[in-house]
Design brief:
The chain is α+β, with helices and mostly antiparallel strands and 124 residues long. The chain has one domain (2-122). Helices cover 26% and strands 39% of the residues.
């Protein structure tokens, strides 16, 4: 059983390292506003899950750039189920970052969305 814990720990560390590298790169990308078009409340992923806060909001978004539509998803920080259900609604705008060379590559950073969303973003 100890081997499984070690493998899971290594997997989580590698995933977190890859995510942090992507976020550092995305911080240099241009920003634009995107419209949230889908809400879902899901079990929190391994990186965000905390005792007593086992859920996350996942939101789908789209934006238009040079006449083309692009989109993606982002998640909230972990929260209680009732809170997630209450906040996962409405027509909101989210500030996203996109790779100018490949606008399908997007990132949503917490620091770009402190004022416009009713919940904190888990940067992705």
């Amino acid at each position: 059983m100890g081997g499984i814990f070690l493998i899971d720990s290594i997997r989580l560390w590698l995933h977190r390292r890859s995510r942090e590298k992507k976020l550092r790169l995305a911080a240099t990308w241009p920003t634009t506003a995107a419209e949230v078009n889908h809400w879902a409340v899901l079990p929190a992923d391994d990186e965000a899950n905390a005792f007593g806060t086992p859920f996350q909001i996942e939101a789908g978004f789209h934006f238009k750039l040079n006449g083309e539509y692009y989109g993606g998803y982002f998640r909230s920080v972990a929260m209680a189920g009732g809170e997630a259900e209450r906040l996962a609604k409405g027509e909101l705008s989210v500030n996203i970052r996109y790779n100018p060379a490949d606008p399908d590559a997007t990132a949503v950073l917490a620091e770009d969305n402190k004022e416009n969303l009713p919940f904190q973003v888990f940067s992705s």
